[in-house]
Amino acid sequence: MHLTDLNWPAVQALSKDTPIVFPAAALEQHGRHMPLFTDSMLLGEIIRRVSERMGDRVLFAPLMWLGNSDHHLDFPGTLSAPPRTYLDLLGGLLENFIQHGFRRLVILNGHGGNDVPGKQAVFEVRQKHRERDDLLLLFATYWLLGGKPNQLDATIQQQQMGHACEWETSMILRIAPHLVGDLKQVQPVEFGTAFSPAARGWITRERTVPGHIGDPRHATAEKGEKLFGVFTEDAVGLLEQVIAWDGKSWM
């Protein structure tokens, strides 16, 4: 069920325990072989598949294509909302639907740079409504929901999400192969560990010259379909948990 298809009386008539999903992605550089809209295209496809599975039990807001991508601004074409601006934007979306009376709100993320401001937005809104034990606010990134694609298919070499990498390139090959450049011209860029387990503040050009991180040369459309399958199942599983929540427990 999509917010864009409804009128306001239809929204008003919904159960206030209906999960509301805010998809959050980005428009930013994805190396020399991938389109700028990669993150939004991939999350949009996952939302399409999940919405078909969930039917009228979940309401999906339109995909937010503008993300926090300041770290990619050295690469032309990238559009970014600065971290504080983005945090306030996400917090505002949550506040809108709290005002409308809804209690189960989920930001489903498709861009790594949204992770910190997204979690902070959820944290800040929860503190503002700290008397509301019936309020469930979640931030979730689709590739961090537990699925292990490389365990499902041993030909998938990466064990984690990179950037314009084997995983993302495979998924774009599945839905829009005409937008993928010549992978024979691409060289791998190692993930690196830097100062792990500390978290370093970084910008993308410190880690990669061409813009990608990982090894896109191993990408195939067949792997892309399997990746979409894993990530769709993970998102459906999360939303089933949201629906099943008893309205008060920590869970």
Instruction: Report the radius of gyration as a whole number of Å.
Output: 18 Å
Mean pLDDT: 96
Query: How big a fraction of the residues is strand?
Result: 5-15%
Q: Which structural class best describes the helix and strand composition?
A: alpha/beta
Helix content: 25-40%
* CATH topological fold name: Rossmann fold
Report the major sheet.
4 strands, parallel
What is the N-to-C succession of helices and strands? HEHEHEHEHHH
Describe the protein in words.
- The protein has 251 residues and is α/β, with parallel strands linked by helices.
- The chain has a single domain, classed as Rossmann fold (3-Layer(aba) Sandwich).
- It has 7 helices and 4 strands, in the order αβαβαβαβααα.
- Strands 2-1-3-4 form a 4-stranded parallel β-sheet, sandwiched between helices.
- Helix 2 crosses helix 7 and helix 3 packs across helix 4.
- The chain is globular and about 55 Å long.
- The two termini are 26 Å apart.
- The mean pLDDT is 96.
List the helices and strands and how they pair.
Elements: H1 8-13, E1 20-24, H2 38-54, E2 59-60, H3 83-99, E3 104-109, H4 115-128, E4 136-141, H5 149-152, H6 166-175, H7 221-244
Parallel strand pairs: 1-2, 1-3, 3-4
Helix pairs in contact: 2-6, 2-7, 3-4, 6-7
